[in-house]
């Protein structure tokens, strides 16, 4: 069977029918209404809270927190509907501001901001970007009930009403994206907060976190978000064509959990068995390896012990501009990464966490082969992968390792898919 990839310049590969276990992708669901109507309906019937018109007034200082360009949330189409609701409540323009939840990603360019928020927002309202390493941009709000530090962007403290705009898909760090994740780790700072949340998640295997709405990491995230002042979310669930099929709005926990049910239905894909070879693209997490690694995490749920994971991804921005240690120190065994963190060898613990999450798959469970025109072969090796020029070459290498009769499972939309083995 011919397997195509959603990337110009990356050639397809033929997988022999005798080897193919199946080709899987998240669901395709026809939207029931245009996105503006779905957002308006969700705002009119919020889950677990009064509507925005009852939460805001002409005195309310409102901060809209929006995820960044690495997420496909169609914020530019959502924001006008949210603003209309706030304006109906009497909130004046000079009481509105925007803050992008960049996490530890590279800052967005002006072009990216205009694409994300819409072209008029930058001219009409203050728009701030999160800088996780800038201590002057952070405030310490104490700790969660479990002692987890809450060190977040200072602009949160200036708002009376914080609204988070995002999307919900399965996620290796917090179970699902969306909800209070916009605050923690989206607006958290170093050396605690965002580092701690990533490192803690890296201590768990994927089946305990990915696609699990109630998990130890999400409990911390929710408490930290609420303690930071988050009161309302507007989250979308999209299908595998990035079409919005549902919008949930309201309480950051209750509305989020409703959205998780839909997201698991769309992105949870039953597969017939774990496979010796898992071949997958990283779409839509394609900008750099920091994002494309999400496909590797998904493969942990689908590959047999001792198997091979073939990652096909463009990564035009390379590995991770904000985290050079990920290449410098590489991806050794999980035990060695933990030892390096304990000894202080990693100055960037977030990079260590991504290395550990990768090691769970291509060191502890299987091995990895990468097809990526954006990452040089020496850097692919540093990340723990064997480089291959094409998917055809990668599959040949996998068959050489495991035998010509090895079964192959193909996963599309690997950046967000949730394989559900029997």
What tags apply to this protein structure?
20 strands, 422 residues, alpha/beta, Rossmann fold, 2-enoyl-CoA Hydratase, Chain A, domain 1
What does this structure look like?
This protein has 422 residues and is an alpha/beta fold. The protein folds into two domains: 2-25 and 271-420, 2-enoyl-CoA Hydratase, Chain A, domain 1 (Alpha-Beta Complex); 35-267, Rossmann fold (3-Layer(aba) Sandwich), CATH 3.40.50. It has 14 helices and 20 strands. The strands form six sheets. It has a six-stranded parallel beta sheet with strand order 3-19-15-16-17-18, sandwiched between helices. It has a six-stranded mixed beta sheet with strand order 6-5-4-9-12-13, with helices on both faces. Helix 3 (75-88) crosses helix 4 (110-117), helix 9 (289-299) runs parallel beside helix 12 and helix 11 (334-343) packs antiparallel against helix 12 (349-362). The protein is globular. The model has no long low-confidence stretch (mean pLDDT 94).
Largest sheet: 6 strands, parallel
The main sheet orders its strands as: 3-19-15-16-17-18
The best one-word shape is globular
Distance between the termini: 24 Å
Lay out the secondary structure:
Elements: E1 2-3, E2 13-14, E3 20-24, H1 35-44, H2 52-55, E4 62-67, H3 75-88, E5 96-101, H4 110-117, H5 121-124, E6 127-129, E7 138-143, E8 149-153, E9 161-167, E10 170-171, E11 175-176, H6 194-201, H7 216-227, E12 230-238, E13 244-250, H8 254-267, E14 268-270, E15 275-281, H9 289-299, E16 303-312, H10 325-328, H11 334-343, H12 349-362, E17 366-371, H13 377-382, E18 385-387, H14 391-402, E19 408-411, E20 418-420
Parallel strand pairs: 3-19, 4-5, 4-9, 5-6, 9-12, 14-20, 15-16, 15-19, 16-17, 17-18
Antiparallel strand pairs: 1-2, 7-8, 10-11, 12-13
């Amino acid at each position: 069977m011919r397997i195509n990839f959603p990337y110009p310049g990356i050639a397809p590969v033929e997988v022999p029918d005798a080897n193919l276990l199946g080709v899987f992708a998240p669901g395709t669901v026809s939207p029931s209404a245009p996105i503006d109507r779905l957002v308006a309906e969700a705002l009119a019937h919020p889950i677990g809270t009064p509507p925005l018109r009852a939460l805001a007034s002409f005195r309310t200082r409102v901060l809209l927190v929006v995820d960044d360009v690495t997420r496909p949330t169609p914020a530019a189409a959502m924001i006008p509907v949210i603003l209309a609701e706030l304006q109906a409540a009497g909130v004046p323009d000079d009481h509105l501001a925007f803050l992008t939840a960049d996490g530890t990603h590279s800052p967005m360019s002006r072009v990216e901001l205009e694409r994300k928020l819409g072209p008029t927002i930058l001219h009409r309202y203050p728009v701030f970007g999160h800088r996780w390493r800038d201590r002057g941009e952070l405030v310490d709000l104490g700790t969660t009930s479990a002692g987890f530090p809450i060190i977040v962007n200072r602009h949160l403290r200036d708002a009376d009403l914080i609204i988070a705009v995002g999307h919900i898909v399965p996620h290796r760090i917090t179970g699902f994206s969306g909800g209070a994740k916009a605050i923690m780790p989206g607006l958290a700072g170093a050396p605690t907060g965002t580092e701690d949340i990533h490192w803690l998640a890296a201590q768990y295997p994927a089946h305990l976190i990915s696609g699990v709405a109630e998990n130890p990491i999400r409990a911390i995230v929710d408490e930290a978000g609420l303690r930071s002042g988050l009161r309302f979310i507007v989250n979308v669930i999209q299908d595998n064509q990035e079409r919005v099929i549902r919008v949930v709005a309201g309480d950051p926990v209750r509305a989020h959990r409703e959205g998780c049910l839909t997201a698991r239905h769309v992105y949870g894909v039953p597969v017939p068995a774990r496979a010796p070879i898992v071949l997958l693209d990283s779409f839509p997490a394609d900008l750099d390896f920091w994002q494309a690694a999400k496909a590797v995490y998904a493969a942990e749920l689908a590959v047999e012990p001792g198997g091979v994971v073939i990652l096909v991804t463009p990564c035009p921005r390379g590995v991770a501009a904000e985290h050079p240690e990920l290449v410098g120190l590489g991806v050794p065994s999980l035990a060695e990464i933990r030892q390096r963190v304990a000894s202080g060898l990693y100055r960037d613990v977030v990079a260590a966490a991504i290395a550990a999450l990768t090691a769970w798959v291509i060191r502890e469970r299987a091995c990895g082969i990468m097809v990526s025109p954006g990452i040089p072969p020496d850097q692919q090796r540093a990340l723990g992968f064997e480089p291959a020029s094409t998917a055809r070459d990668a599959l040949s290498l996998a068959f050489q390792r495991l035998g010509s009769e090895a079964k192959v499972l193909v996963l599309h939309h690997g950046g967000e898919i949730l394989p559900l083995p029997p």
